[in-house]
Amino acid sequence: MDAKVAKSGAAVPAVILAEFGSAHDVLHAAEKVQAAGYRHWDTHTPFPVHGMDRVMGLRDSRLGWIVLAFALTGLTGAFVMMHWMNGVDYVTVVGDKPPGAPQTLPSMVPILFELTILLSAFGAVLGMFGLNKLPRHHHPVFASDRFRSATDDKFFISIEAEDPKFDVVRTRELLEGFHAAHVEVIEEEPA
What we know:
Blueprint: H1 3-8, E1 12-20, H2 23-35, E2 41-44, H3 52-56, H4 63-89, H5 105-131, E3 155-160, H6 168-176, E4 182-188
Antiparallel strand pairs: 1-3, 1-4, 2-3
C-alpha cells in the first residue's frame, strides 16, 4: 500500500474477491493460488469441499492441545486445592481416614471431574476465539453484495491486501485467469 494514498484519505484495496460457480472450479483455483505463493487468502463455500484443507496447506487445529492444557490445569488445580484445604489449611478427618491417604481419592473424583470439564470448556471457547482472531466485527468481504450468496450457492476465493505478493493488477489478472465468474476489488477507508 502506498503511504501517499493512505494519508490522502482515499479508499485503499483491502481484498480481491473472485466468484466461482462450482466446488470443482474453486478447488482448482485454490490449488493455483497456493502454487502462486499467496499466504493471506481464504475460500468461502456454502458447504465443506473435500480436499480444500489439503489444497490450502492448512494444518490440523491446535485447539485440542489448548483444551488438553486447560483440562490438565483443572485436574491439577482441583487436586491441589482439595489437598491444601483438607490436609494442610484446615485438617479434616473424614471417615477415620487421614488427609491425603489413598482411600480419600474416590471422594475427590467428582470435584476432579467437574473442574477438568469446566476448564476444558473455557479452553475450547478461549482457544477458538484466539485461533480464529475473534472478535473481528467487520471484514471487508462483507461489503460485497455478491458475497451474500457464499452461504447459498456460490464459491469464493479472497486474497487479502496484507499478503506480501499482493498487487492489485497482477492478483486480479491471476484470478481472472482461473475463469472466475466475477472478480471484484473491495476497498476500505483507511483508519
